[in-house]
Every structure is written in structure tokens, then in C-alpha cells.
DNA sequence: GCAAATTAATGATTTATTCAAG
DNA sequence: CTTGAATAAATCATTAATTTGC
């Protein structure tokens, strides 16, 4: 069942994906893709863009030009109780996801989706469109935001928990404290990306080693970054 | 010890260590235990198991006791009608986490902890010990299982969702959507990091080396994550 | 109501894979 | 290619829920 090529396969996969990204965006200046999501362009012809087609490793960029009204076809200004307000007309304000849509999006998120590629966004958009107005960028932004906010929540939870542990029974070895603060970056995976040596053998023995190790490792490291962790990326 | 197949090799090695467990000296600490926890191989007679009678448990004899005793602290052999049977004696109980403990563990998990290193496990164990009997291995296993099972749940959810999407409105023109189902997003983005090295058990000898190797600095060097396009540190 | 019987959860083990040194 | 190290997946086994017959 196992194929010999597993390595090859993954290698190719990576290589392919890796190489493909640069190829597109910068060099091909042409009108083509500005944005990963094919569908997007259609929606917003004027947007600046960034990103490449699919290779997301790098995080993507905001598809659209913020700072101006995007969806509304036009605005009406009127005054209400001394306040001037803009009332969108012709169609839209910002996307207001329906319960159904959110349900599906969350399910996808739980299922592991984080940065869907254009094809995925297209599909999702298509599907969610049945439950209400929606555009690809909405899906894109939703994932961006949701991911970021989940990360925040988790960070908070982690800090709380850890601080509780610390204060309640652990020595004040600041080790991870600092870590928790700056390198938090980890989305949710906290394990360090390098190999960590573990020693805990049977409850006795080298506490020393462990202690020493703790100094550096205890951190809750981050994850979330492109393959090839070990400094090779650089 | 050249074997043709790596799997076989490891298998044999493992089998060997498992079956021929030296009942006497745990101190030998073979470096390559199948399991980290030097002390507990299946029925390790000398395991430092804690025999705590305080855990309320049913004393009802399991339906088929013979042959599957694993956790028993020790066995009593006796002969019954020509058959030698082993009767588990002592606390056979498997760890039964208290609500408190689970709460903390889950908080940690939500906080992003997935594969705590020895130092972390030690701390966690220490802390949770205040809420009930617990050993390092329990913590280790808990994370292993929880992680795996969460992954399962997520995968199921994802498949369901995706299949729903597929069947409901999308043609099979999945460009690269198939990826959605691969590891790409599985755990939570956690998969990106490679292996971490662990050194269990023995804890003798090069603890220092391990620590050093572990390289705090390296950890530090890792980027927190895609805040910036990697590679271009500038 | 209550236990035996059955089932769902989940702790603990075992087996397979993966990655990368040698 | 072989192999050590580490993990993830699969499986086993036990405990707690729940059901069921009395």
C-alpha cells in the first residue's frame, strides 16, 4: 500500500507549489491574476491586489481597497438627528452573514480550513450563495478574521491557564512567560518546531536536564509557518 | 542487526524490548524504549505504580479477566482446575481524570498545547496532582489521545460539510480542492512543523548535550509566523 | 429501584509512517 | 538504502453511562 514515492510525492508537491507562486504574481504583470481567487477579480476590477494564486504560505493580502465603500452601489447622505449618515442604496452594505452561512463556515473552519484557495473560495461562495448574498471576498475575509480572532482567544486562554498554573504551584521561572508574550504567534499549535528533546523518564532521574531544558523549551512555540521549519527557510 | 525492512526492524526491536522486559533492573534504561516511560511496559512488575486505594472503584470482577490484565500492579498466579490463572491484584485502575484536571487539560489544549515536552508535562502533572492522582504518562497520553480524537472529529465534520457542499451544488470540478481534505489543514495548521526530537527515559548521560542541541537560540530564531513574508527577513 | 447487560467514551498500547542522518 | 527518533493512526481494554428485565 505504501508507495515508494512518498517522499518524492511530497517533495514534488512542495516544489511545485513553491515554485509556482513566484512565477505568477510578480512576473506576469498582465491583467491576469491579481488575486488568488479568480472569482474575485470579477467582483472587483479595481482592486489592488497582491498575492499569488494559490500558494498561500505567505499570507495573503487584502483583496480590496479599503478605505472606500466597497459594496454599496451608491450612498445617500442624509441627516438624522443632527448626524449625517450615509445610507447605502442600491444594494449593500457590508456582508451580513446568515446563520446558515456562519454555520457552514464554522464547520469548515473546524474541519481545518484556514486559508482556502481560490477554487475553494469559489465553491464555498457558490454554496453559501444559496443562503443569502455573499461574495468571494466575504469568504476570504471571514477566514482571515476568524483565524486571527480564534488565535487571540486562544492566546488569552493559554495565558490565563498558564498564569494560573504558575501562580498556583510553579516556581517563577520566567521562562515561558516571556515566550507567552512575544512569540505567541502560534495559531494553536504550540509545539516547537524544532526537535525538542524530551526526558522525563519514569519520574525520577535527571531533573537537572529537564530543568535546563526548560529554560529554553518551555516555550510554547509557534507553528504556523511554511514547511521547512528548521531554519532552512531562510 | 541488519534487517531488510525498517519496519520489521523497528517492530522486532520493539517486540523484543516489550517481551523481554528485564523484570529486575529498570536502571539499565535501554535508550530506545518503545515507550518513553521506561517504567511501564505492559505488565511491568516493578512499575512504580501508585497503589492508591482511595480511588473509589467498583470491585466488580470484569467478565473476562484472564489474559488481558494490563494495568494491574501485580499478578497473583494460582491454579484452578489445572489452569494457571493470573489474578490481578492491587490497583488496576486506569487514570480517571477529575473534572478539574480535564478542565485544565482542555484549557491548555485550547491554548494550543499539543505535544508538551517533558518539562511541560512535569509541570502540568505537578499541578494536576493537586486535584487527584496523576502521572506524567497520563498527561502525555491525554494529549496524544485528545489530539488524535479532535482530529478525527474535525475530519468527520469536514467530510460531512464538504460532501454536503459537493452534493448540493458543486460539480466535481474540484481543482485542487481535494487538498482540503489532506493534511493541509487537519489539526489546525499544526501540521506544519516537523518532528521534534524527544529523548525519553534514561535521562542519563548527555542531558546537557540534548539541551544544547535543543538550542534555545534556535527556537528563538523561529519566526513567530507569517507576520511578514518569510525568507525576507528584511 | 436495582443490577446485569449493553453501549459510548476514553485511557493505554501497539503498529505504521515519516523524516532525515549515515 | 538503512536506520534512529518521533509521531500519528489503529487498536485494545476499562471505566462510566445508559438501557433493560425484573
Automatic annotation (TrEMBL), chains A, B:
Residues 98-153 form the Homeobox domain. It holds the Pfam family Homeodomain. Keywords: Developmental protein, DNA-binding, Homeobox, Nucleus, Transcription, Transcription regulation. InterPro entries: HD, Homeodomain-like_sf, WOX4. GO terms for biological process: cell division; phloem or xylem histogenesis; procambium histogenesis; tissue development. One of its GO terms (cellular component) is nucleus. Its main location: nucleus. One of its GO terms (molecular function) is DNA-binding transcription factor activity. Coiled coil: none annotated. It is found in: Nucleus. Signal peptide: none annotated. Residues 100-154 bind DNA. PANTHER family: WUSCHEL-RELATED HOMEOBOX 4. Belongs to the WUS homeobox family. This is Homeobox domain-containing protein. The lineage of its organism: Eukaryota, Viridiplantae, Streptophyta, Embryophyta, Tracheophyta. The gene is LOC123186356.
